[in-house]
Amino acid sequence: MHVSHCIRTLRGLPSGALEVDSFRMMVAYYSLSSLDLLSSLDTKVKADEKEDWKSWIWKQYIADEHIAGFRGSSFLTGPSASAKEPPHILMTYTALLSLAILRDDFCRLDRRRVLAFLERTQLPDGSFEPWPGSEEGGDIRIIYAALATCSMLNSWDGIDLDKAVAYVKACRVQDGSYGQTPHAEANGGATYCAVAALNLASHPLQGEERDRTVRWLVHRQRGGFQGRIEKEQDACYSFWCGAALTLLGCADFVDRDANAEFLMRCQFKLGGFAKAAGEFSDPLHTYLSMAALSIYPPSWGVPLTTIDPLLNARTETVAWIREKMN
Amino acid sequence: MEFLNPEPPYILFKDRPEWSDVTAVPQDDGPSPPLAPIMYNDKYKDATSYFRAIYVSQEHSQRVLDLTLEIIKQNASHYTVWQYRYRTLIALNSPLTEELHLLSKLLPTHLKSYQAWNHRRLLLLQLGKKSARSELAFAEIALAKDAKNYHTWVYREWLLCNFFAPMPFVTSTTISPTEGEEPTIEDLDDEGWVDDEVWREEVAFTDRMLEDDVRNNSVWHHRFFVLFEGPRARPSPELVQSEIDYTEHKIALAPNNASAWNYLRGLLSNSKTPLSTLLPFARPYTLPQSLQPSLRVFAEAEERELLPGENAQLPCVMALEFIADALGEKGEVEEANKLFDELVERDPIRKQFWEYRKRTLAQAPTAPVA
């Protein structure tokens, strides 16, 4: 049921999904990665269709003489291309993962220009703006995506890593959690991005600092996980908090069965997972629920492959990227 | 302005005479079947086709404002349209206070749109400090609709840092208000005194918010930011003590409130005060309700007024952990372990974590986790 739900999503979204118009690449990644974890891409999708999907992703690849990256969709594209369409960091990160899931060989990727794109978006405070000239400023999610992209490209040229790390540290709250921007309240998603970004930058949390972060994360489990202190549980935080704990070497602290029981209740009757029981499913919660179950399989087992919690894709998919970008 | 009145029937842009000179540009999603295509409705397809046209011709005009507003109403996450609208406003030298009012009407239905809040931030950067104070009031109204909205809190903190904390703050040049003469915001615009008042009012604001919901962690976080971490924070031992008192009262009101316990730990950690300082306060919360009457008998003599209420669910797990950590900090490993054992029993979802705490305490009895 989850397999057909994900395939349906990849083939078409209802008109109610207008809000993801400029972020279709992310939606595609969630659904592709779900199918990857379910080991269904080879059995349930024909090779031709996968080729079509690959061509669509490459169609979102933007390269000029200086920079290259992926946009989220063709929302600005007319029949005669003349509009300036900048690449977007989150779309570039998810496009690279999606291409790896589809076992693309990355021959068309100009790694040097993708790095130049990241370099151009890094701001004086160390964060990255989502796309050049966005006037949006940066936050910790985009730092994570930028560093994950560098890691996939196997190069950090032009990136001021020390400044990026300093920005992440500025987002730290005294209780060991992280907010999306400096001074902001902590949440599980930002804390995952911080922990993962620090690992990617080879500055992993240690000692008492690490202990505090672990304590904050462990306390978010109620069954499933809540994203902030005294908030309701939400399926996506089973991944954000759970994956962060794994990256900190503390997977043992999670009560797997309690977590899985909560996620099972979030399943929607027509497929997919919702943020909570009784809500509609969506691609993000579907994927992150499965990713959490993959990291923390319950005692009764789940038919999911293993996942790399740092880049957030199936282990074999990450191995594929590492091999192709070596 | 036409767009302020939603009543007249919607006319597609292709049927609007003022757009007849523009050739719409349909979306080209490629020759092969696309990934995650959206079944656009006619309204969106029509409006975005005209947007693609003006995006190429780089037209900045009043009709572009109408067009971008229509698209935003349908898709508030369309970041290119938001940015184009902003640039058009600037190019036309449009009255930005009107845009701010318009956005105030739109925002309540788009509180979770990052782009809508970013647009507001850009407007404020243009409008400057004179508009910032009423923005604090706007943020409070928005919070009345959704008291934990992340974007609203981030926006509020941004307003405070950006407009009410000019650097560097030099006390010697600060004008103190003279008796009977209330300075207006205008004539003291750049003076620290008015800024200080804004920050003081911020504390009162968190009081009000906590009256509504004592568990709202966004409020506790904001209070900590204002008093201890923000650009105008002036931490002092007296402030720490009065905040400890404040928090203890709030805990007495609702003992199983993780936000308040977290704030309390923050106060201690920030001022490098040992947890054990508050052992007398926390201890009663680790005892069952059946023992509370006898505690109350002695409360008066011991000047302890902050006992848990009669309806409180006790023992409180957060208090058990607090005492365990306090004892661990003092090196009283055996006593601390008893509490970790009780936590294993009363908070079994974190069983492995409590066992781990026990093990690490045995190895290094002075490792506190505040």
TrEMBL record, chain A:
Gene3D superfamilies xref list: 1.50.10.20
Cofactor dependence: Zn(2+)
Keywords noted in UniProt: Metal-binding, Prenyltransferase, Repeat, Transferase, Zinc
InterPro entries to which the protein is assigned, alphabetical: PGGT1B-like (IPR045089), Prenyltrans (IPR001330), Terpenoid_cyclase/PrenylTrfase (IPR008930)
GO molecular function: CAAX-protein geranylgeranyltransferase activity; metal ion binding
SUPFAM superfamilies, per the entry: Terpenoid cyclases/Protein prenyltransferases
Ranges of residues in domain Prenyltransferase alpha-alpha toroid: 2-312
Cellular component terms (Gene Ontology): CAAX-protein geranylgeranyltransferase complex
Family per similarity comment: Belongs to the protein prenyltransferase subunit beta family.
Protein's UniProt name: Terpenoid cyclases/Protein prenyltransferase
Organism: Dacryopinax primogenitus (strain DJM 731)
Lineage, broadest ranks: Eukaryota, Fungi, Dikarya, Basidiomycota, Agaricomycotina
TrEMBL record, chain B:
Stated family: Belongs to the protein prenyltransferase subunit alpha family.
Source organism, top-level taxon: Eukaryota
GO molecular function, one term: protein farnesyltransferase activity
Gene3D superfamilies attached to this UniProt entry: Protein prenylyltransferase (1.25.40.120)
Entry cofactors: Mg(2+)
Any Pfam family hit: PPTA
Any one cellular-component term (Gene Ontology): protein farnesyltransferase complex
Protein name: Protein farnesyltransferase/geranylgeranyltransferase type-1 subunit alpha
UniProt keyword annotation of Isomerase present: no
Enzyme Commission identifier(s): 2.5.1.58, 2.5.1.59
Residues of the signal peptide: none
Top-rank EC class of the record's enzyme: transferase
UniProt organism field: Dacryopinax primogenitus (strain DJM 731)
Entry keyword annotation includes Ion transport: no
Alphabetical keyword list: Magnesium, Prenyltransferase, Repeat, Transferase
InterPro entries reported in the protein's UniProt record: Prenyl_trans_a
